[in-house]
Amino acid sequence: MNDNVDPTGAVAGWWATAVSRMEPGVIELRGHPVQELIGTTSLTSMIWLMLRGELPCPRRTRLLEAALVASVDHGPQAPSIAIARMAATCGIGLNNAVASAVNALGDSHGGAGEQCVCLLTEILEAEGAGIDLETAVEQVIATWPHYLPGYGHRFHPVDPRRDPLLSLVDEAVRDGVVAGDHLRAARAVEAALNRGRATPVPMNIDGATAVIYAELGFPAPLARGMFVISRSIGILAHAWEETQQGRRNKGPIPRSILPAHLT
Ligand SMILES: CC(C)(COP(=O)(O)OP(=O)(O)OC[C@H]1O[C@@H](n2cnc3c(N)ncnc32)[C@H](O)[C@@H]1OP(=O)(O)O)[C@@H](O)C(=O)NCCC(=O)NCCS
């Protein structure tokens, strides 16, 4: 530090961070020189390192990567993707098209993983207080809003991403990589939701990935953060494809179809 410029260290302290260290000729990320990470560290491990401060073991990396791969895209029916494509035709550039789409990832679209982690944690706390899991689920969901985060899907009777993700968690539990408590809680919620129902309310992608993030020890808000990282890839691909098609000012429906008039 140059004592003449910042004699009390107040300015340097203002931006104090454990994430990275920069000096002329030095870039350290969580204490690792960037030149040692380049070529040795996968993007998924980098995400973990930056958020958690340590490099994950290969099995944990595999689980995190599976969750990130699973949420990348859900086609233009998904509001985030449709918004990316419409925004890309408005002359605002790729960065703004991506940002517009990311801003639609909320409690009922892509962002439900955050609340799902909270729900599952609350159930496990209730169980930890000495009641059986089924009763804990009943008691806790009675205090939550009707639409439980991480369950239900507009298109899929069973979300095709659910089983491969949960199988990987099963495997990781069997091998002692993760504890499996959030997985147990998530399955118990699904069973409770579907008891006596003719049409299923399946665990959805936000639910299955929330299980992975919680099992890996990510705090609830980072479940949403992870979804944002993952879906940004699909958002960028769609925004770019739409840009290349050259269409200008694309609306949500073809212009030959007019919205119904409310009376
Ligand atoms: C995703 C979602 C918006 C889809 O909603 P939808 O297709 O319009 O579903 P509907 O509102 O028509 O519900 C159909 C039935 O399933 C039930 N249901 C759907 N999702 C439910 C949930 N998460 N919790 C409890 N019940 C649910 C509804 O009560 C309804 O029951 P009924 O047939 O007895 O009336 C909705 O399931 C939801 O809000 N889920 C929670 C948020 C979430 O996880 N979002 C991420 C989506 S990938």
Q: Could you explain how this protein is built, in words?
A:
- With 263 residues, this protein is mainly alpha-helical.
- 54% of the residues lie in helices and 4% in strands.
- The chain has helices at 10-14, 34-37, 43-52, 58-70, 79-88, 93-102, 112-128, 133-141, 162-174, 181-194, 205-215, 220-245; strands at 20-23, 26-29, 32-33.
- It has a 3-stranded antiparallel sheet with strand order 1-2-3.
- Helix 6 (93-102) crosses helix 12 (220-245), helix 8 crosses helix 10 (181-194) and helix 9 (162-174) packs parallel to helix 11 (205-215).
- The longest helix is centred in the last third of the chain and has 26 residues, at 220-245.
- The model has no long low-confidence stretch (mean pLDDT 95).
- It binds coenzyme A.
- The site of coenzyme A (COA) has 17 residues, from helix 11.
The counted number of beta strands is 3
DSSP strand (E) fraction? under 5%
Overall outline: globular
- Summarize the helix and strand pattern as letters: HEEEHHHHHHHHHHH
Low-confidence stretches: none
> Which ligands appear in the coordinates?
coenzyme A
Class computed from helices, strands and strand pairing: mainly alpha
Overall mean confidence score, pLDDT: 95
What share of the residues lie within helices? 40-55%
Largest sheet, order of strands side by side?
1-2-3
Number of helices: 12
Question: Main β-sheet: number of strands, strand sense, barrel status?
Answer: 3 strands, antiparallel
- Rg, nearest Å: 22 Å
Quote the distance from N terminus to C terminus: 69 Å
